[in-house]
Structure formats: structure tokens, C-alpha cells
């Protein structure tokens, strides 16, 4: 049995990487070091991964990418690279919410999960996810304030949150005896989610694929201020 050649790009957070599925269904992953310039290493890493698997980019049949929320630069490079591959190779693209990637990367077996991303001050992007019988996750996220996030804790069985999570939310989770788990963002998990979307024919519009920014990027805000001045 042959498998589709699929690529996944996960550069939404400080640590990133890519994963490639070969014709035998084996997944090959490469991660980047923290602090590395993604625009310098992403394309060469993709090319070397194809070479090591005795494949060429023209063999690609689908590409998924983690769309955020996350870092402005990482998401911009990720989506731009995916769109370039989609347009040049004519392959379908799959935008994977980063909260889904975090959930799929986690070893937790709970059925109801909250994922806190893009925390800034007392606001954050909070996603409530439910695990299906086949292990896949479904749910949606939104930008909420701290009070709303605390009110969402009942019914959840775990909270995925990094060090930027508001202290008030961590304290409320602790008081509710809710495990707080440091999230991982695995390129392999992103690829597995991409494979599910690919099998279902659930592709995104290539030109419409865009990063998920919960707030206006700071770089855009500063640019607009200079223009107004």
C-alpha cells in the first residue's frame, strides 16, 4: 500500500520544524533550534528532507501548516512557504490551528481540553477541544479575557498553557485541581492532522490561507502609527 507524500510545517512557536510522510507511510521529522531564523533554514530543511527520502518536491501531494495563534514572523513565513508550494506545485493546502497541533502533540488521554495561546496581559486565545472516539480533536477558539477563561475551566480535564499564561488562570486551574501541561508543537502531530484532512478532501483555498492572528500584529500597529504621524 502506498501513502500520499505529505509535508507539514510547524513554525508557529519559538521551536519549529517540518515533517514529511513518504510513500511507505513513514514520517520523517526535522526540528529547528530555538532562536534560529526560520526564513534562513525552512526552505533548505524542506529540500534536504526530500533528498534524504529519495523524493523531489514534485512528488508532493499535499501540504499542511500550523496557522496559529503564535509568533508573527514564524506564522508569516510558514503560511507564505505553504502557499508558494501550493501554487507552484498545484497541491492542496491544509491550515491546522495550532491549538489542534498542541492537543495532538500531548500525551494526555483526557476527553475535554483547554488550550491557552497568545497570552498577553490578561487576554488570551482560548480553545476548547473535545476528543472523538478515533482520537481526533474538535473545537473552536476565541480571544477572551481572564475572567472568561476562568469561567471556562469547569468541565475541562486539563489545561495546555505555556509560561506566558496569566497567573490568575494558573491559580484558578490549581484551585480546581486541573492539570496544567506545558504544550508541545510537534511537526509530526501537524502532519497527522494534515493526513486526516487530506484523506477527507478537506483542503483550504490556497489564496485564502492566512495566519490566525488574535490581535493586530505589533509590527502592523507600529507601522500604522508611523503612517498616522
What are the key terms here?
10 strands
Describe this entry's structure for a reader.
This protein has seven helices and ten strands. The protein is of the alpha/beta class. Strand 7 and strand 8 form a beta hairpin. Helix 3 packs across helix 6. The mean pLDDT is about 90.
Ends distance:
62 Å
Tell me the β content: 15-25%
Largest sheet: 5 strands, mixed
Counting helices, strands and paired strands, the structural category is: alpha/beta
Instruction: Count every beta strand, where a strand is a DSSP E run of 2 or more residues.
Output: 10
The percent of residues in helical segments reads 25-40%
Number of helices: 7
Shape: globular
Mean pLDDT reading: 92
Major sheet: order of its strands? 3-2-1-4-5
**Stretches where pLDDT falls below 50 for ≥5 residues?**
none
Order of helices and strands: EEEHEHEHEEEHEHEHH
In short:
The protein is of the alpha/beta class.
Structural topology:
Layout: E1 6-10, E2 17-21, E3 27-31, H1 38-52, E4 62-66, H2 72-89, E5 93-96, H3 98-105, E6 112-120, E7 123-131, E8 137-145, H4 146-151, E9 158-161, H5 167-175, E10 180-181, H6 187-200, H7 218-228
Parallel strand pairs: 1-4, 4-5, 6-9, 9-10
Antiparallel strand pairs: 1-2, 2-3, 6-7, 7-8
Amino acid at each position: 500500500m502506498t501513502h500520499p507524500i505529505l509535508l507539514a510545517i510547524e513554525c508557529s512557536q519559538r521551536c519549529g520544524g517540518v515533517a514529511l510522510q513518504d510513500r511507505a507511510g513513514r514520517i520523517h521529522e526535522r526540528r529547528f533550534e530555538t532562536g534560529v531564523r526560520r526564513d534562513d533554514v525552512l526552505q533548505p530543511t524542506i529540500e534536504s528532507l526530500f533528498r534524504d527520502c529519495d523524493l523531489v518536491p514534485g512528488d508532493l501531494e499535499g501540504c499542511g501548516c500550523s496557522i496559529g495563534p503564535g509568533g508573527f514572523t514564524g506564522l508569516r513565513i510558514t503560511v507564505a512557504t505553504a502557499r508558494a508550494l501550493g501554487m507552484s506545485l498545484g497541491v492542496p493546502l491544509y491550515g491546522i490551528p495550532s491549538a489542534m497541533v498542541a492537543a495532538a502533540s500531548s500525551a494526555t488521554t483526557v476527553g475535554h481540553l483547554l488550550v491557552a495561546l497568545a497570552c498577553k496581559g490578561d487576554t488570551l486565545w482560548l480553545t476548547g477541544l473535545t476528543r472523538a472516539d478515533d482520537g481526533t480533536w474538535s473545537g473552536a477558539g476565541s480571544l477572551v479575557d481572564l475572567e472568561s477563561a476562568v469561567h471556562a475551566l469547569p468541565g475541562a480535564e486539563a489545561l495546555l498553557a505555556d509560561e506566558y499564561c496569566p497567573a490568575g488562570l494558573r491559580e484558578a486551574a490549581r484551585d480546581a485541581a486541573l492539570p496544567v501541561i506545558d504544550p508541545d508543537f510537534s511537526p509530526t502531530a501537524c502532519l497527522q492532522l494534515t493526513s486526516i484532512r487530506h484523506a477527507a478532501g478537506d483542503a483550504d483555498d490556497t489564496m485564502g490561507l492566512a495566519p490566525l492572528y488574535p490581535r493586530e500584529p505589533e509590527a502592523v500597529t507600529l507601522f500604522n502609527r508611523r503612517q498616522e504621524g
